[in-house]
Design goal:
The protein has two domains: about 5-20 and about 290-420, Alpha-beta prism (UDP-n-acetylglucosamine1-carboxyvinyl-transferase, Chain); about 25-230, Alpha-beta prism (UDP-n-acetylglucosamine1-carboxyvinyl-transferase, Chain), CATH 3.65.10. About 30% of the residues lie in helices and about 25% in strands. The protein is built from 14 helices and 23 strands. The protein has a four-stranded mixed beta sheet with strand order 21-22-1-23. It has a four-stranded mixed beta sheet with strand order 2-14-16-15. Helix 1 (about 25-30) runs parallel beside helix 2 (about 50-60) and helix 10 (about 310-315) packs parallel to helix 12 (about 375-385). The longest helix has 14 residues, at about 235-250. The radius of gyration is 21 Å and the shape is globular. The structure holds uridine-diphosphate-N-acetylglucosamine and phosphoenolpyruvate (PEP). Belongs to the EPSP synthase family. MurA subfamily. Keywords: Cell cycle, Cell division, Cell shape, Cell wall biogenesis/degradation, Cytoplasm, Peptidoglycan synthesis, Transferase.
């Protein structure tokens, strides 16, 4: 963690921006490649740090990959079981998908506990419950999870998730896709990224039915053969971030490559705030916004309001003429942006766990702040654009985990922004 973002704020932004492929699809699709019996190609791959770290993990298993101009080629045909590099594993949350993928491929997996955003406790008990139901034995020792199967290997099973979990749903799909028999996941997560993964697997011959609903049925298959390039869906969280930026400091911004249906809970809130969103096919135009109405937001699993957009929308709420409230039911401790926004002059607080109160704060002034995690970083980035003077966001590496070519995109919109090493 040694980069900082420097923003000279107070400028109005305008122009066009194109959304990249979804981080949360990409980070599941890349581990899924090791289940394939052929090379695989993805298009619309975002240029984010998580991709490079996943490539390091693949490489440690002799899975060669090449990433150029949004295309990622992965060849898993010469894969070898090997110890996975713990620094790369710790650099992102989704490295835990190698548990399900390795289990599906080899019937065993040894993976260090994953890293990822520090947004409060992130247990993986439901992943483990799923692996056990499929016939695996799991034990944890010294920050490492050891998953094994007996001579009979994995088998299909019925699994009811105690809570809706994106990660557990995906990990169980990865483990079950080649397991003999039928697996049924009940109370499954319904995120579009899960549908994207199922589409990728099904196009290779998998039988994953019902992705996007809360019951997913999987018939195990023997082989997975890639025949076509898989184009990754657009990142709805990146889109929501640019929609927020446009409402906060835009003088007319057109955002391309959006699936509006993936953002309905978000766009309906923006409309409620008085932002005149003009939705046209796969693009949304945000004209200059002059008046914002305070609102209440409650995060919940998809199709509810995404926890990952709770922070990016916060700077827009700071422009509303009254008090807004956010209740984060997924990650009540996801409040690490608050103390930093206050440094810029924001009137924002969280007196009760999970509840954030935002009051009108129109006179922000640049300061030195810290991005504790990716979306806290996004909130600070937008607030830094709103503030007069210079804002320095330390630990900007978090932003680079998930925002595709962010400096270039912001510069195209007229922002004065750069990312440099922290010791400069
Ligand atoms: C790589 C990726 O896709 N990350 C997303 C994914 O994270 P991730 O997959 O880690 O989040 P989950 O959907 O699993 O978590 C949802 C809730 O369930 C809880 N839980 C989860 C699993 C478990 O075994 N036990 C348990 O208690 C979590 O603590 C959390 O409160 O979904 C989150 C919630 O939409 C998003 O913020 C992340 O951006
Ligand atoms: C929490 C997030 O990511 P991860 O699950 O990869 O840490 C996020 O994208 O907001």
């Amino acid at each position: 963690m040694n980069k900082k973002m420097i923003i000279n704020g107070g400028r109005r932004l305008a122009g066009d921006v194109t959304i990249g492929g979804a981080k949360n699809s990409t980070v599941a699709l890349i581990p899924a490649t090791i289940l394939a019996d052929t090379p695989v190609r993805f298009d619309s791959v975002p240029d984010i740090a998580d991709v490079y770290n996943l490539q390091i993990i693949l490489n440690s298993m002799n899975v060669k990959s090449k990433f150029q101009h949004s295309i990622l080629d992965v060849d898993p045909t010469e894969i070898k079981e090997a110890a996975l590099p713990s620094t790369a594993i710790k650099s992102l949350r989704a490295s835990y998908y190698f548990m399900g993928a390795l289990l599906g491929r080899f019937g065993r997996a040894t993976v260090t506990f994953p890293g990822g955003d520090n947004i409060g406790p992130r247990p993986i008990d439901q992943h483990i419950k799923g692996f056990k139901a499929l016939g695996a034995e799991v034990h944890e020792e010294n920050d490492t999870i050891y998953i094994t199967t007996g001579i009979n290997g994995l088998h299909g099973a019925r699994i009811f998730l105690d809570m809706v979990s994106v990660g557990a749903t995906i990990n169980i799909i990865l483990a079950a896709v080649k397991a003999p028999g039928q697996t049924i996941i009940e109370n499954a997560a319904r995120e579009p990224e899960i549908i994207d993964l199922a589409t990728f697997l099904n196009n290779m011959g998998a039988k994953v039915r019902g992705a996007g609903t809360d019951v997913i049925r999987i018939e195990g298959v023997l082989e997975l053969n890639s025949r076509a390039t898989h184009t990754i869906i657009p990142d709805r969280i990146e889109a929501g971030t640019y929609l927020s930026l446009a409402a906060a400091v835009g003088d007319g911004i057109m955002i391309h490559n959006i699936i509006p249906e993936h953002l309905e809970s978000f766009t309906s809130k923006m409309i409620e705030m008085g932002v005149d969103l003009q939705i046209d096919g796969d693009q949304i135009y945000v004209p200059k916004t002059t008046q914002i109405t305070p609102i209440s937001i409650k995060t919940s699993p998809y199709p509810g309001f995404a926890t990952d957009l709770q922070q990016p929308i916060t700077p827009v709420l700071m422009l509303a003429d009254g008090e807004s409230k956010i209740l984060d039911t997924i990650y009540p401790k996801r409040v690490r942006h608050i103390v930093e926004l206050r440094r810029l002059g924001a009137d924002i607080a969280s007196a009760v766990e999970g509840v954030i109160t935002v009051n009108q704060s129109t006179n922000l002034v640049g300061s030195v702040v810290q991005a504790a995690e990716i979306r806290a970083g996004a909130a600070l980035m937008i607030a830094g654009m709103m503030a007069d003077g210079q804002t320095v966001i330390k630990a900007a590496d978090h932003i680079l985990r998930g925002y595709d070519r962010v400096v270039w995109k912001l510069t195209q919109l007229g922002a004065d922004v750069e990312i440099i090493a922290e010791d400069n």
